[in-house]
Amino acid sequence: MAGRPREFDRDAALAKARDAFWSRGYEGVSMADLVETLGIASARIYAAFGSKEKLFQEAVALYDEGEGGFATRALAEEPTAAEAIERSLREAVETYTRKGRPQGCMVVSAATNCAVENDSVREFLADYRRRRTASLVERLERAVAEGELRPDTDAQVLGDYYATVLHGLSVQARDGVSRKRLLATIPTAMLAILAATYP
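The structure assignment produced for this chain is given below.
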């Protein structure tokens, strides 16, 4: 009697897909690559996840719950906006330069440019990045309201600036700039919020 087929571990498959997309981007990972990486037939991938795009969206959600959620956690957990920003920058560098892991931010690098047929993927990630920027702005607005930052502080400009720095850190890490060098940029980046902080 033949043995039963090995149970399909959906969570393990999703983690493997996340790392593939994180390393090579959405268009850089074909269905054939996914079949090889996940070790299951394409029919089972479609049955489990619906489509390559839906699998990618779930992979981004998994990234955001784990490694990629550092900014969300910092903004929620740190007592001041300045501490939240500093922690976000430091953990960004640590996450983007981890040995044996894909470099940079999955959401920044997975699909900045796409073929026309993948516009929905590009827009999905752009929307994700806009929401991340909005969360920074929201935390900075709260810091103004609570008196941590001066009332004339432009929270939108400051939030846009730190979103730009975070995206830049991802690109630099992807290009092989060392963790040490990237961490060394943080004190300079922090001058922007410190200038808006009451002495």
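Interim note for the steering committee: The domain at 66-196 is CATH 1.10.357.10 (Tetracycline Repressor; domain 2). The longest helix spans residues 119-145.
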